[in-house]
Amino acid sequence: xxxxxxxxxxxxxxxxxxxxxxxxxxxxxxxxxxxxxxxxxxxxxxxxxxxxxxxxxxxxxxxxxxxxxxxxxxxxxxxxxxxxxxxxxxxxxxxxxxxxxxxxxxxxxxxxxxxxxxxxxxxxxxxxxxxxxxxxxxxxxxxxxxxxxxxxxxxxxxxxxxxxxxxxxxxxxxxxxxxxxxxxxxxxxxxxxxxxxxxxxxxxxxxxxxxxxxxxxxxxxxxxxxxxxxxxxxxxxxxxxxxxxxxxxxxxxxxxxxxxxxxxxxxxxxxxxxxxxxxxxxxxxxxxxxxxxxxxxxxxxxxxxxxxxxxxxxxxxxxxxxxxxxxxxxxxxxxxxxxxxxxxxxxxxxxxxxxxxxxxxxxxxxxxxxxxxxxxxxxxxxxxxxxxxxxxxxxxxxxxxxxxxxxxxxxxxxxxxxxxxx
Length: 422
Known about the structure:
- The protein is mainly alpha-helical.
- The chain has one domain.
- Helix content is 59%, strand content 5%.
- The chain has 16 helices and four strands.
- It has helices spanning 2-21, 34-45, 72-84, 88-114, 116-127, 130-135, 142-162, 165-179, 185-202, 212-223, 226-230, 235-249, 306-326, 329-340, 361-376, 381-403; strands spanning 264-265, 275-276, 286-293, 296-302.
- A two-stranded antiparallel ribbon has the order 1-2.
- A hairpin with a 2-residue loop joins strand 3 and strand 4.
- Helix 14 runs antiparallel to helix 15.
- It is globular, with a radius of gyration of 21 Å.
């Protein structure tokens, strides 16, 4: 079974990489938040200090520098631009590679926790999940926080088994990469710290080594601003920059037609009217791009695979029940990973978007992988295979509007299953 599972994940990863690379240069210009991220990555590639100044003027019409997020993901994108050039492939290739890597990493987490059958089901689920696909093809930092957090959880699971210091250091390093890409990495640090601390408390131990989970990521976060320091910026400028970041993250006056919280749609901002459209129901995606190709049009809609997310609610509910029944810490790790990336956002001081749910989805996939494994071991094994087949068909159905594939624009209504998707 081990050999089969290795062959399977290699094939699935290569296939998924090809799918993500297909038409990756379309649209052939910035779209959605690339007007911030790609522009900033280009400036990093030129060693331009302007992106580190919140008050720098826009470099091009319709763009702005992204000083709001830590630099690591954009530095990786900048390296790609230096190698490939300042063009769509250069901007987007790192997201493709990192986004594709989420698939085998999800496989590994499921394999470590629940074995090869669960891993195959989990990897297939995440490979054919549309939001994960969309965020693997755009120059943003979300795929990076997703991958690095997952790796942190993998080494945390291994450390929980073996208690080896090198595994704790690897856990801390990947969590450091996560927080150096996006502040959401703090949630991952909190979840892993809570999990490992809980395991120690069960054994009536206090493990001071867990302090590495804070020390190493803190050093890496400051180190991710290496270019900032090399350019001659001061500690006071670093502090002032973070004061500005904190101010923006707490703004109540932001508005966007696709703005949400984890529970509500808030197109007029947090102080405006609210309608029920929770992330877990895939109730409100985000239009990233509309591109005209003669009589046809390409849509890129950041929408989750509805069948994965809807069935996933049942799967996570089952995992909760199993944890209550068995008190198995493996279930606790999955639940922490799933809930920590969206539940705290309920108390957000600013609007968010559906793609902020992205880091939770691999944990949902692992939970589903376990559920399908349990079904597969029974006489109802065909049910698990049937549902996975439906996931794949659903992905393919929504592929045109999540990939930008040119279609008849009048057919867009066929994809709008929910009124809130419009």
